[in-house]
Amino acid sequence: MDTSVAAAAADVAAGETAQEQQADQPAPVKSLSPSRAADFMTCPLLYRFRTIDRLPEPPSPEATRGTVVHGVLERLFDLPAEERTAEEAVRMVRPEWDRLLAEEPDAASLFDSDDDGSALQEWLTSAEALVQRYFTLEDPRRLEPAERELYVETTLESGLRLRGYIDRVDRAPATGEIRVVDYKTGKAPRAGFEQRAMFQMRFYALVLWRLHGSVPRLLQLVYLGSGEVLRYEPDEADLRATERKLAALWSAIERATERKDWRPSPSKLCDWCAHQALCPSYGGTPPPVPDTPVVPDAEADAPSPRTSGADL
Ligand code: SF4
């Protein structure tokens, strides 16, 4: 990551006072989720806006649809196996949307100007299509997941805490081997970008390995947008490399935090960024970096399913 010498020099003087003020405070927790790690790798300024400034973001149709579809696929397995049909799953979409609205009333703002209800209907239909496509990729009547929406957390020897939500964990009855499954409502990555997409899954595999002592047998990304499945068999060397990568990533985050140097990194993903108006790459000016927390704390990095583009 690039660093700013000027910003660093200016922060040395300011930092001494800040350190004195924080001397009596408990040390912040070093914590990363796959979403926040992906934010920093995509754009350090985006990470800052979400984790340090904690700026609110309006709901987006894509992320909200992702939440509804994930909810349906999670609850589908509450049904007896023989009832897990595409028709039944499609019927669950509207109630899942109603459930989300009850929990997050702000989501209704997506359809504020939808006077005749046609935009909502079109959006629900697109969610139903994604749910239907799931059935071309797996047969849920033949699956009994060991876990769904599983929260996992572990602390590495370095003190870095890793945590996140896993969509589904399957366990082979005969061997006990683990398959980690994640649903994506977007399309599968282009050839050559699969490994980047697998980063999140390696993150989960590392956490499970550290928690239970065995490497998951298979990592599986199910892309409902394009009807494709990516599979990967990790090994210990992979997961050690992932651990080193996360340590390097955290060091970069700490440097950026100490120097208050959060560079924008424009890319195609800017189209989905809620903070363009504050981004120098788009003529904006970020607000001053908050004095506290000086290092991201645990709550700022609290795991939150499907809150970033990486989670779709
Ligand atoms: S608009 Fe792009 S460059 Fe700017 S903060 Fe958002 S993701 Fe980063």
Automatic annotation (TrEMBL):
Key words, A-Z: ATP-binding, DNA damage, DNA repair, Helicase, Hydrolase, Nucleotide-binding
Domain PD-(D/E)XK endonuclease-like: 31-280
InterPro entries: PDDEXK-like_dom_sf, PDDEXK_AddAB-type, Restrct_endonuc-II-like
Signal peptide: none
One function term, GO molecular function aspect: helicase activity
Chain spans, region Disordered: 1-34, 283-312
Name of one Pfam family that matches: PDDEXK_1
Coiled coil: none
Protein name: PD-(D/E)XK nuclease family protein
Organism: Phytoactinopolyspora halotolerans
